[in-house]
Design brief:
- It is built from 13 helices and 11 strands.
- By secondary structure, the protein is of the alpha/beta class.
- Keywords: Receptor.
- This is Tripartite-type tricarboxylate transporter receptor subunit TctC.
- Belongs to the UPF0065 (bug) family.
Length: 328
C-alpha cells in the first residue's frame, strides 16, 4: 500500500494528521540525492551475535529499497566502543550507520570514550526489542518469588552469571538487585555461552539473558524461565510472569536494537531511513525471525526513538552513580 493511499485512508478514518506528516517527510526525503554511494552499517560486535543477526536482514532490505550496496561491517572491541567511535567520527552524510542496542547505553557508563553517547549521535530508527529472562539451573528455583525469598534470607549465597561487565545483562541484574533489595554474587564470563554451560552444570544458580541466547536449552526443558524483565508479559512467552507483577516492584527493562548515525545527518535522509527501516522491521519475514528469538518490532518516529535512547542512557548513568560503578 503506497503512502498516498495510506493518507487517503487515514483522512477517511479521521487520522490524517499523523500519516500525513509521515507522507510529507518521505516526500521531502525522496528529493534528496541520497544515497550516492554504498552504505556502511557498522556492527560493534563479532559476527554471529544478536546484534549481527538483527543487522543483516535489515541491510538486505535497505539494499533492495535504495538500490545501493549496504555493507555490514563488524568492528568489535571495548564493549562496542570501537565500532561506535568509527561511526561517531564518520561524515554525517547518511552513508555510515551504527547498529546499536541497549548495551550501547550501558557500556557508555563503564568506559571513557572519544565520543559522547548522547551528543555524538543522531538516533535514526528503532528496530525491535525483547525482554531479559530469569533462567534457573536444572532442579533450581521454579518461581521468582522463591528465588527472592531465599536471597533475602541468605545474603550472598546465590550466584548468578553474566557476560562480562557493562552489558545490558549486568546492568539489568544490578537494577533488579537494587529494586528488590538483594545481595547476590556476580560471576562474570566471557560470554553467555560459557555462563550457560555452568548454569546447566549447576555451578551457578541463575542468569539473566535474552531468549535468543538460551533458546535451545529452554526448548529442551534443560533450564527453566521463571520471569521476564519487561514491564508487561512477552508475547512469545505469555505464561511467564513479569518481575514487576510477581514482586509488586517498579521494575521494567526491555533490550532494544536500533540505528544511529553521526550527529548532523541531514533531516530528510534521517526521516527516509526511519520510514524504510520501520517498514523493513515490520515485514512478515522479519517479524517471524524476531518472534523465534522472543523479540518483536518496535516502531517509533525519529523523535520518539531519540527520546528513548537519551532516557535509557541517562537511566543507566543514574544507576551507575547510585551503586558506585566507575568508568575506566
Amino acid at each position: 500500500m503506497t503512502l498516498p493511499i495510506l493518507r487517503r485512508a487515514a483522512i477517511q478514518a479521521g487520522a490524517a494528521g499523523l500519516l500525513g506528516a509521515v507522507g510529507a517527510r518521505a516526500s521531502r526525503a525522496s528529493d534528496i540525492a541520497w544515497p550516492s554511494q554504498a552504505i556502511r552499517l557498522v556492527v560493534p560486535y563479532t559476527p554471529g551475535g544478536s546484534n549481527d543477526a538483527v543487522a543483516r536482514p535489515i541491510a538486505e532490505k535497505l539494499q533492495d529499497v535504495f538500490g545501493r550496496t549496504v555493507v555490514v561491517e563488524n568492528r568489535p572491541g571495548a564493549t562496542g566502543a570501537i565500532g561506535a567511535a568509527v561511526v561517531a567520527n564518520a561524515p554525517a552524510d547518511g552513508h555510515t550507520l551504527l547498529l546499536a542496542s541497549s548495551s550501547f547505553a550501558t557500556a557508555s557508563t563503564m568506559r571513557r570514550t572519544t565520543f559522547d553517547a548522547i551528543e555524538s549521535f543522531d538516533p535514526v530508527a528503532s528496530i525491535c526489542d525483547a525482554p531479559m529472562l530469569v533462567v534457573t539451573k536444572p532442579g533450581g528455583f521454579t518461581d521468582i518469588r522463591a528465588l527472592v525469598a531465599f536471597a533475602k534470607a541468605n545474603p550472598g549465597r546465590l550466584q548468578y552469571g553474566m557476560a562480562g561487565m557493562g552489558g545490558i545483562g549486568y546492568f539489568t541484574q544490578e537494577l533488579f538487585n537494587r529494586t528488590a533489595e538483594l545481595r547476590m554474587e556476580a560471576i562474570p564470563y566471557s560470554g553467555i555461552g560459557p555462563a550457560s554451560i555452568d548454569l546447566v552444570a549447576g555451578r551457578i544458580d541463575f542468569l539473566m539473558t535474552t531468549l535468543a541466547s538460551v533458546r535451545g536449552l529452554v526448548e529442551a526443558g534443560t533450564v527453566k524461565v521463571i520471569a521476564v524483565s519487561s514491564p508487561t508479559r512477552a508475547p512469545a512467552m505469555p505464561d511467564v510472569p513479569t518481575i514487576k507483577e510477581v514482586l509488586g516492584v517498579d521494575f521494567g527493562v526491555n533490550v532494544w536494537w536500533g540505528i544511529l548515525a553521526p550527529r548532523g545527518i541531514p533531516a530528510g535522509v534521517r526521516e527516509r531511513l526511519n520510514v524504510e527501516i520501520t517498514r523493513a522491521a515490520a515485514s512478515d519475514s522479519y517479524t517471524r525471525f524476531l518472534a523465534a528469538d522472543g523479540a518483536k518490532p518496535a516502531p517509533s518516529s525519529v523523535a520518539e526513538f531519540s527520546q528513548m535512547v537519551r532516557e535509557d542512557i541517562l537511566r543507566w548513568r543514574h544507576l551507575a552513580n547510585e551503586v558506585g560503578i566507575q568508568a575506566n
